[in-house]
């Protein structure tokens, strides 16, 4: 089945946790400077806006960095973590409800030679796109690409008809959000059981 871009209506639904689960198995595509890279999403994390202590928008926080989270669903939100790693998120829900989904890992499909150049790796191994920082670097994603509508030509998410079995998709607490108290225990992370590209605890 050819790639079919996800419609904006996919992102503009209320349930960020459901969307995070449904993104497992979809394909992220980037096209920069004539180079196309893509991979199948194998790990996501949902962040449920103003009520979620792990979210950048918890309590209604609005800054120059997080303002894009308050847009209609379907935009990219890329931020720099620890001054080193760019992390790519998908904004969901509708205007003024700042839900977002962090894409943590994917299984590379197209443009692997270009991914190796971007990451400085000599050969393909599972670390190429394992974890959100490695994933973004391999696909050439940086924070200047915040605010891109994800149904265009440069960066989009797509469906090729592939589906993992329900039993293959595992829910767990998110990674690295211990500061969020009880919200750190929410089962808002989804990953493909046994996939070697998945980061963190499996």
UniProtKB/TrEMBL annotation:
<dbReference type="InterPro" id="IPR003180">
    <property type="entry name" value="MPG"/>
</dbReference>
<keyword id="KW-0227">DNA damage</keyword>
<protein>
    <recommendedName>
        <fullName>Putative 3-methyladenine DNA glycosylase</fullName>
        <ecNumber>3.2.2.-</ecNumber>
    </recommendedName>
</protein>
<comment type="similarity">
    <text>Belongs to the DNA glycosylase MPG family.</text>
</comment>
<dbReference type="InterPro" id="IPR011034">
    <property type="entry name" value="Formyl_transferase-like_C_sf"/>
</dbReference>
<dbReference type="Pfam" id="PF02245">
    <property type="entry name" value="Pur_DNA_glyco"/>
</dbReference>
<dbReference type="InterPro" id="IPR036995">
    <property type="entry name" value="MPG_sf"/>
</dbReference>
<keyword id="KW-0234">DNA repair</keyword>
<keyword id="KW-0378">Hydrolase</keyword>
């Amino acid at each position: 089945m050819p790639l079919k871009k996800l419609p904006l209506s996919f992102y503009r639904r209320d349930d960020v946790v459901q969307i995070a689960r449904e993104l497992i198995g979809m394909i992220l595509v980037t096209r920069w400077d004539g180079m196309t890279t893509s991979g199948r999403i194998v790990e996501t994390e949902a962040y449920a806006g103003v009520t979620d202590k792990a979210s950048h928008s918890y309590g209604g926080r609005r800054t120059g960095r997080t303002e894009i989270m308050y847009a209609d669903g379907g935009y990219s939100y890329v931020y720099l973590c620890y001054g080193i790693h760019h992390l790519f998120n998908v904004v969901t829900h509708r205007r003024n409800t700042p839900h977002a989904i962090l894409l943590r890992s994917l299984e590379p499909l197209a443009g692997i030679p270009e991914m190796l150049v971007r990451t400085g790796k000599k050969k393909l191994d599972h670390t190429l796109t394992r974890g959100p920082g490695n994933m973004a670097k391999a696909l050439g994603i940086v924070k200047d690409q915040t605010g891109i509508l994800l149904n265009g030509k440069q960066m989009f998410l797509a469906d090729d008809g592939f589906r993992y079995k329900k039993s293959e998709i595992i829910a767990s607490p998110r990674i690295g959000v211990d500061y969020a108290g009880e919200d750190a225990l929410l089962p808002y992370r989804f990953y493909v059981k046994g996939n070697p590209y998945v980061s963190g605890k499996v």
